[in-house]
C-alpha cells in the first residue's frame, strides 16, 4: 500500500515547522545587533511613549536576553519537530511502520504546537492529519474468489 498522502502531509508539516526556525533565527540575530538595541532604547525613552518609570539600559538588556532565550527555545522545539517528521517519513516509506509513524506524528503535532507557543500550529495540523490518516488507513486484505486471490 502506498502512503503518498501521509508522506506529502508530513513533508508539508516539515516545511511549515521551518517557519518558526526562520523566525527564531531572525530574533536571535536581532538580539545581538547593537543597532536594534539602540533603536529600541531611543523608542522606549521617546516622549511619545508613555511608560511608568524610566527604562534603563539594564532593563532593555534583560528584555533582549529573554527574547534570545525564547527564540532559542522555539528554535530547538522546531528542529525536534522537523527531526520527528523526517523519522515519520522514513517509517512511512515502503509502508515499514505506519502505526509507529502515525503515533509519532500525532504526539509531535500536539507537543510541538504547544512547545512553539502556537507559532508552529500549521505544521502541527499537517502532522495531526497525516498521523490520523496513517493510523486509520487499513491495508488491503486479499479476497479469495473461486480459487484465485485478488488484491
TrEMBL record:
<dbReference type="Pfam" id="PF13273">
    <property type="entry name" value="DUF4064"/>
</dbReference>
<dbReference type="InterPro" id="IPR025273">
    <property type="entry name" value="DUF4064"/>
</dbReference>
<feature type="transmembrane region" description="Helical">
    <location>
        <begin position="103"/>
        <end position="136"/>
    </location>
</feature>
<keyword id="KW-0812">Transmembrane</keyword>
<feature type="transmembrane region" description="Helical">
    <location>
        <begin position="7"/>
        <end position="28"/>
    </location>
</feature>
<protein>
    <recommendedName>
        <fullName>DUF4064 domain-containing protein</fullName>
    </recommendedName>
</protein>
<keyword id="KW-1133">Transmembrane helix</keyword>
<feature type="transmembrane region" description="Helical">
    <location>
        <begin position="70"/>
        <end position="91"/>
    </location>
</feature>
<keyword id="KW-0472">Membrane</keyword>
<feature type="domain" description="DUF4064">
    <location>
        <begin position="2"/>
        <end position="114"/>
    </location>
</feature>
Amino acid at each position: 500500500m502506498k502512503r503518498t498522502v501521509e508522506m506529502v502531509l508530513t513533508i508539508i508539516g516539515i516545511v511549515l515547522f521551518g517557519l518558526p526556525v526562520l523566525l527564531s533565527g531572525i530574533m536571535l540575530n536581532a538580539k545581538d545587533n547593537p543597532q536594534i538595541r539602540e533603536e529600541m532604547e531611543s523608542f522606549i525613552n521617546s516622549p511619545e511613549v508613555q511608560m511608568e518609570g524610566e527604562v534603563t539600559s539594564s532593563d532593555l538588556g534583560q528584555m533582549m536576553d529573554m527574547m534570545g532565550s525564547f527564540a532559542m527555545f522555539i528554535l530547538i522545539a522546531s528542529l525536534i519537530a522537523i527531526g520527528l517528521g523526517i523519522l515519520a517519513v522514513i517509517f512511512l516509506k515502503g509502508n515499514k511502520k505506519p502505526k509507529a509513524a502515525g503515533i509519532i506524528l500525532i504526539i509531535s503535532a500536539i507537543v510541538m504546537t504547544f512547545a512553539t507557543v502556537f507559532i508552529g500550529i500549521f505544521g502541527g495540523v499537517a502532522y495531526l492529519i497525516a498521523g490520523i490518516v496513517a493510523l486509520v488507513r487499513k491495508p488491503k486484505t486479499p479476497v479469495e474468489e473461486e480459487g484465485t486471490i485478488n488484491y
